[in-house]
TrEMBL record, chain A:
Protein name according to UniProt: ABC transporter permease
InterPro entries: ABC_transp_permease, BCAA_transport_permease, LivM-like
Location in or out of the cell: Cell membrane
Keywords for this protein: Amino-acid transport, Cell membrane, Membrane, Transmembrane, Transmembrane helix, Transport
Pfam family, one: BPD_transp_2
GO MF term set: branched-chain amino acid transmembrane transporter activity
One Gene Ontology CC term in the entry: plasma membrane
Family the UniProt entry places it in: Belongs to the binding-protein-dependent transport system permease family. LivHM subfamily.
Topology within the bilayer: Multi-pass membrane protein
Annotated TM spans: 12-31, 37-54, 61-84, 96-116, 143-162, 190-212, 224-250, 256-279, 312-328, 384-406, 413-436, 456-473, 507-526, 546-570, 582-604
Gene Ontology annotations of biological process type: amino acid transport
Highest taxon listed in the record's lineage: Bacteria
Primary subcellular site in the record, as a coarse category: membrane
Amino acid sequence: MGFYLVQFLGGLAQASSLFLVAAGLSIIFGVTRIVNFAHGSFYMLGAYLAYTLAERMGGAVGFWSAIALAAVATGVVGVVMELLVLRRLYRGPELFQLLATFGVVLIVQDVALLIWGPEDLLGPRAPGLEGVVRILGRPFPKYELLLIALGPIVLGLLWLLFHRTRWGTLVRAATQDREMTAALGINQTWLFTSVLFVGSLLAGLGGALQIPREAVNLHMDINIVVEAFVVVVVGGMGSVGGAFLAAVLIGLIQAFGILVFPQITLVVVFLFMAVVLVVRPHGLMGRQQATARGAGHVPEAPIHASGMMGRVAAVGLLVVLAALPALFGDYALAVLTEMMILALFAASLHFIMGPGGMVSFGHAAYFGLGAYGAGLLVKHLSGGMVAGLVSAPLFAGLGALLFGWFCVRLSGVYLAMLTLAFAQIVWSIAFQWYAVTGGDNGILGVWPDGWASPRWAFYYLSLVLCAGGVLMLRRVIFSPFGYALRAGRDSPLRADAVGIDVRHLQWLAFTVAGAFAGLAGGLYAYSKGSVFPTLMAIPRSVDGLVMVLLGGVQTLTGPLVGAAVFHALNTEMVRYTDHWRLTLGVAIVLLVVIFPQGIVGTLARLPFFRRKEA
Amino acid sequence: MTGSTSDAILTVEALNAYYGRAHILSDVALQAGRGEVVALIGRNGAGKSTTFKSIMGLVDDRRGRITFAGNDISRSAPHEIARLGLGYVPEDRRIFTDLTVMENLEVGRQRPREGAPEWTPERLFTLFPNLAEMRGRLGGGMSGGEQQMLTIARTLMGNPLAILLDEPSEGLAPRIVEMMAHAIIGLKAEGQTIILSEQNLHFAGLVSDRAHVIEKGRIRFGGTMRELAADEAVRRAYLTL
């Protein structure tokens, strides 16, 4: 009995920490509609800052002041990000800010590495709360009791802040209708800045409070931000009370899940989220999201099939690509091969994001499924490459068919999070099912057949399949199916009214995109000779998003340019600098600020590239 | 032709507005004097709401000269314009449905302003007695008429020098329309400057001193209500359906 009670209390303590972070994320999203990837980085910063400050100041007063100061300082960092970056992007396409916050994630990672080094740092115990109490004979850390109390206290304080102050009233008003709030004389710029302060402060506080519990390390950011997203989505975006409820549920599921399903610990939380979203598409306490009025979002210009110039350029590019093996050595060809594979991956993600209007945070699942489709065939059936490249898109397509059925029932961030949940589920299966997938040892020896094994031969094979895949996706976009899909994106209601089955189309599009991502994944497996679970991990999905957004969502060439630029930046920076994350992060932030419509999107607006009006 | 007033509080000259490539307003000009009630009359889609939104800074692509209380507001942001004392009541009301009546009023609150009537929730409740009984009710749980009153009250909480009132009678039951007319006449008695848009000539006639007629984004007539009533040709060309 005592054992379960202690487990239960441990779950609640974890829930409090989760709640602090998730509440901040939820508040920021509610008002600014920004999906703040950097929120986990603020959590990590809070922990590092608290560690340093507590070491410097020492003593009981020093410890608690360190926690408070670290939280405030993190809030200030959030304000700096808002002032320097986000403020310039509010009028840009939605999700573009997401790309910028991802740049901030990379920057913070390297800055933390520079300042605090790669070692795990163990902070001091909380003065006065070092020991344990006995609960039904079982020891339980006193500090955890403090955390358990803190969750409801912060919830209460936030409620007072939002319901009993003018600031809170204005924030809630702006959450609902920014334009009207402005027309009543409220300067939203400062409202947003202050919201970023409060939200980041909560993240920093959550991080700072961890130092007596666990070592501060450089991986805290991604782990917590994913969990916080899960909490926010399960609770309902923008609902602080929902975030609390969800944090408690998830804390307890983590605490007891490990007892009940030790085999699939990693996936239990995501399964829970998937179930919640399927049953309640807007989270436990969320409501149908009103489109944020006056979000300043400009209707996209329709995309056009390329004219004569575009076709000549495309053929020219293909000719150049075909000529490259004569000029370059194996290393360059390997990089170029990867670039083309990523371009196909990005194009497949763009297919559902651009024309389909569905943002996926978990597209790597299908890339990975493709790779495993090929890899498993080699491992268990000793299949050849041709069979592998057929099974890759099939395997991924089937996965997309299954998951897509659930995903297309949602929209917006909820849809994105469900795709992430499925990606995590697939990833943990690959990671934990040793007998079949080899777990994190991966599958080795996935090599091309003899005729395709020279670098140049595999390069041509990839060129044919990737260029062919990209062209086919383009064809589909300009087919009646593509038009109907875009109609469904622009106005689901009107599309429904003229007899288009929007959900069905989206499902189909999701499957097609999955299959092409799978083809890319299969090629990738053969180009590397191996398959690992990281192929379908979150960073790979984020890479895909970055490539598509960097290029420009509402352009067709965008994802290709995005993939090329991203991969080139990535490879070159790893070669020339130790601080490639910092450099890449700064590059992404600058690109976003300079090209607020994506690279291709911005170029297309220049008079030189603009089509002449007929 | 406009019965121009010497102490105009709002002057709009050569206002053009665009949505993308569509040219919505062409050289719109209008004027309101202190304490006046001026109507902007036109059919559905004539450009009334766009005129108000452009004045308020809510249309990105707008050109022209707009002067309010001695300030050039042609390039100002909406919140700056509101803080100069120009109130805006949108036609679709845009109540904060998740906020209570009192909270809706709080969002609109600004400091008292010299030269403008000073409003408090209590004074507004005498103007709109219905609202007094539902202070704690969520905006989403109110009827259309109640929401219309709340949206006007919310704007008045900013103690505006003038308000832009977009189609106050639209979609309301006849009894509520009558209450609305009384409220506007009451506001006028307080010295509140009002520029209102209407399709309903009768309603406009009840409350307004002067009128501008707009059609296809151009001002076609300017004069007193009496002159408009006498001008059969204008009414037939631009107002009757």
